[in-house]
Design goal:
Elements lengths: L1 H20 L4 E2 L3 E4 L3 E3 L4 E3 L26 E19 L11 E5 L8 E5 L10 E4 L5 E8 L8 E10 L15 E6 L12 E8 L6 E10 L12 E9 L8 E7 L9 H11 L8 E8 L2 E10 L27 E6 L8 E3 L5 E6 L7 H18 L17 H13 L8 E6 L7 E2 L37 H8 L2 H16 L5 H14 L1 H10 L17 H22 L27 E4 L2 E6 L2 E5 L5 E7 L4 E7 L3 E4 L3 E8 L5 E8 L1
Parallel strand pairs: 11-16
Antiparallel strand pairs: 1-10, 2-5, 3-4, 5-8, 5-9, 5-10, 6-7, 6-9, 11-12, 12-13, 13-14, 14-15, 15-17, 16-17, 18-20, 18-21, 19-20, 21-22, 23-24, 24-25, 25-28, 26-27, 26-29, 29-30
The protein binds calcium ion.
The site of calcium ion has 8 residues, from strand 10.
Length: 673
């Protein structure tokens, strides 16, 4: 605290000194740089004499620069040495003022603008025949400054002006342009990213939402995704030179993804699903945050910066494999798999015995040994064989030996609550060293969820689960889930887990709608820019069942869906909200405790059932403590348990105390006849 105070005092002091020493800004004139080839509109031919870049700095509003290239054209100044820019001004080509909308001003210290950061973006159509001025609040000095025309307009700028003062400046204040953090990428020679398999080299800067922090590194970047790669707004994968916690996110990693949200006009569906995954306490939920993306000086829109799904700390945290791990027990893990409808486009994949396509994500394509590949393929088939065997319900030797229900159920609930058609066409699962079980997750790819898929619209009018409602069962995990539903113990556990989250107030209409409202507010400025860049609000894209004509309309649709889905889930899973106990339920001495029942009673999805000379406690899907005493005070049972238990008790009246991990207690009475 003391240091902080001294720091802020010095900061204020230096601010004052700086203020007194601040040089006066001047209009800067220097060497004009920029795209060489212009267009001669009289014949639409390439030119070096008509509409050239010099026109942008000739002081005349009736001459303009028009680049021959339709996208990526730019014009600026080489100031000879760094200047801190304090003001910029622009005037559009006569009769074409809208062509400056989404034009970006940048500053750099390398002539190729590889290290450039934004100074400003024009977001409104400017008036004609006049200079529009804009103050710039960026503390860094730049030798090179420029204006980059937006997509498909050949710059079309009549006049530009930069104002500033000589100086290196500092990195204390940058401009992320809109309210969100910015990811600013420049590739070598401003090459466009047109492939999913070839990395391009470049530089990336991550600028905090308030502009007070910047992290810059070399990067490699390529395209990614399956269906999402085919859209105009492309998804990308970044591989940084150094591991880092980008924007303070949990993983210290090189690999990050930029999700494009093309068909998802709320720009938040993945984030809402990640929120569900966190509420349901899946072991790992991918990090995701909304950002604005700039590529080679062009505004690309609102994206989600997300984890790459990979093995590592704060990601899928399982044992890492070495090349020499080819005998048991080392051979047993870890592995990361994906049941994947697109598996046959990958290098390391297999079809299971029952025709389920599976991609081996880890160990990686170029690192996995034949022994490892064969082991995990065989283990997957073993799981499948057991699941489809006659004795599959056996809690010890059946499917539960190979499939972890704790994570499966939470993964399932996330997919169903969000109404995600894609869920069982892409299921991530992992197997760690030294255990037989596959665990499920992380959840991923919710572009088509939350009522955004015409093939399943309207989801809540369909009495069937979403997993069972689309296409054929081939190529998906559908048959596997059907098999689970044929096991009444699975259904009971599913209901109990769901009821627990409902009872505890984790999954409520208020909470889930609140998250949507919060994101809508956070995204408001960025969504306006995004749909200025991509005018698709009135177009049906990807699998959109409907268009709502506005961002607010799209958000309202998701809110209505979530509200109705929760009611649908309650109905489907037979959930009845508990009525509040008027007496103190924590008082074990309370003789009027209405939870007192002979036979069966229930708390937080947990049932206490009397059996012959025994008490059975069912529906346990989380660690809890159970204490059972008889009427004389004799301790019959006192243990932490993780799954259902049968406690031999003898006949009589027993008090059962259930203690949750957060300390909350329920006391029940049980009579065993
Ligand atoms: Ca001019």
């Amino acid at each position: 605290m003391l240091n902080l105070r001294i720091c802020s005092f010095l900061f204020i002091l230096s601010g004052w000194v700086g203020l007194y020493a601040l040089p006066v800004s001047e209009k800067l004139s220097a060497t004009v740089i920029g795209t060489e080839k212009s267009v001669d509109y009289s014949n639409n031919q390439e030119s070096t004499t008509v509409n050239t870049r010099d026109n942008a700095f000739d002081g005349k509003l009736n001459t303009f620069f028009a680049s021959f290239i339709r996208t990526g054209g730019w014009v600026g100044l080489d100031l000879g040495e760094p200047f801190v820019i304090t003001k910029i001004a622009w005037c559009p080509r006569a009769a074409q003022p809208a062509r400056l909308k989404l034009g970006v001003f940048e500053g750099a210290n390398h002539p190729d603008f590889g290290d450039a950061v934004p100074l400003h973006m024009i977001t409104q159509t400017p008036p004609e025949n006049t200079m529009t001025e804009q103050t710039v609040n960026v503390s860094k000095g730049f030798r090179y400054v420029r204006y980059v025309g937006p997509n498909d307009v050949r710059c079309n700028v009549a006049e530009l002006a930069f104002y500033g003062y000589r100086g290196e400046g500092d990195l204390s204040q940058l401009n992320p342009v809109a309210d969100l953090p910015a990811v600013v990428i420049h590739t070598v020679n401003a090459a466009d990213i047109v492939e999913k398999d070839v990395y391009l080299k470049g530089i990336v800067s991550f600028i905090a939402a308030d502009g007070t922090e910047i992290y810059t590194d070399s990067t490699e970047i390529k395209g990614r995704g399956n269906a999402s790669w085919l859209f105009d707004k492309k998804p990308y994968r970044l591989k940084l030179f150094k591991k880092t916690h980008v924007f303070g996110l949990p993983a210290n990693a090189k690999n990050w993804t930029l999700i494009n949200n093309w068909g998802d006009k709320t720009l938040m569906r993945n984030l809402l699903a990640f929120d569900l995954s966190k509420r349901l306490e899946l072991r790992y939920t991918p990090a995701g945050m909304p950002v604005n993306v700039f590529l080679n000086g062009e505004y690309k829109g609102c994206y989600q910066l997300c984890d790459q799904i990979e093995v590592g700390d704060e990601r899928v945290d399982i044992k890492e494999m070495e090349e020499e791990d080819i005998t048991l027990p080392q051979l047993s893990g870890g592995y990361l798999l994906e049941i994947d409808a697109y598996a046959n486009t990958e290098i390391s994949w297999f079809n299971s015995q029952r025709g389920v396509p599976v991609t081996v994500k880890y160990p990686k394509d170029d690192e996995i040994t034949p022994e490892q590949y064969n082991y995990i393929r065989s283990h997957f088939n073993t799981m499948e064989n057991v699941l489809f065997s006659s004795g599959y319900k056996n809690p010890e030797t059946g499917y539960r030996k190979y499939m972890d229900m704790e994570t499966f159920i939470r993964h399932f609930l996330t997919g169903e609550l969000s109404g995600n058609t894609d869920t069982y066409w892409s299921v991530y699962m992992y197997k760690d060293r030294g255990e037989d079980m596959f665990r499920f997750g992380p959840v991923w790819d919710f572009d088509l969820a939350f009522e955004n898929d015409r093939r399943t619209y309207p989801i809540n009018l369909n009495p069937a689960w979403i997993y069972a409602s689309t296409g054929s069962s081939a190529g998906s995990a559908r048959n596997m889930i059907n098999r689970l539903f044929a096991d009444e113990a699975f259904v009971r556990q599913l209901k109990a887990v769901y009821a627990d989250y409902r009872d505890r107030g984790v999954l409520t209409e208020e909470a889930l709608l609140g998250v949507i409202d919060d994101y809508a507010q956070l995204l408001d400025k960025s969504q306006q820019l995004n749909f200025m860049r991509w005018g698709i609000l009135n177009l049906s894209v990807h699998q959109n069942p409907k268009t709502y004509g506005s961002y607010a309309g799209e958000v309202e649709n998701v809110k209505n869906f979530v509200k109705n889905r929760l009611a649908w889930m309650d109905n489907k899973l037979g959930y009845v909200p508990k009525t509040e106990d008027p007496e103190d339920p924590e008082d074990p001495e309370d003789p009027e405790d209405p939870a007192t029942l002979a036979g069966e009673t229930e708390t937080s999805g947990i049932s206490v059932v009397s059996r012959e000379n025994a008490i059975r406690i069912e529906g346990i899907s989380r660690p809890i403590r159970i204490d059972i005493v008889d009427v004389t005070g004799r301790i019959v049972f006192a243990k932490n348990v993780y799954s259902d238990v049968l406690v031999p008790s003898g006949k009589g009246l027993f008090i059962v105390v259930i203690t949750e991990s957060d300390g909350k207690r329920k006391t029940l009475k049980c009579t065993v006849f």
